[in-house]
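Z., the sequence and structure:
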Amino acid sequence: MRPLDDKIELLKVIAHPTRIKILYELMEGVKCVSDFEKFLGKRQPNISQHLTLLRNHNIVDFYIDGKLRCYFLVEPMVPDILQILEKQYEETLPLPTCCPVSKR
């Protein structure tokens, strides 16, 4: 179980558009760097930097299959975080009754 400070750091690490896209793909299953190149339209060194950061924070891991590094999710909070990002919120929260703004 991650302490709160570690959870905050996890949010900082994944809060990048490329890393979010990588994590969405890994929710579908194991992927190799070449798979990421195809759907991200980025070059291997850039993708590897993102994967290294995710791996250094124990969010993903990999195994070697021949010449390929195949990545997979290991952090159980990631699917929940991504699910929250997809949720559509219709309204804002109600204002407190004691708030001067709500008395207008």
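The CA atoms of residues 19 and 50 lie 6 Å apart. The chain has a mean pLDDT of 91.

Let me know what you think.
H.
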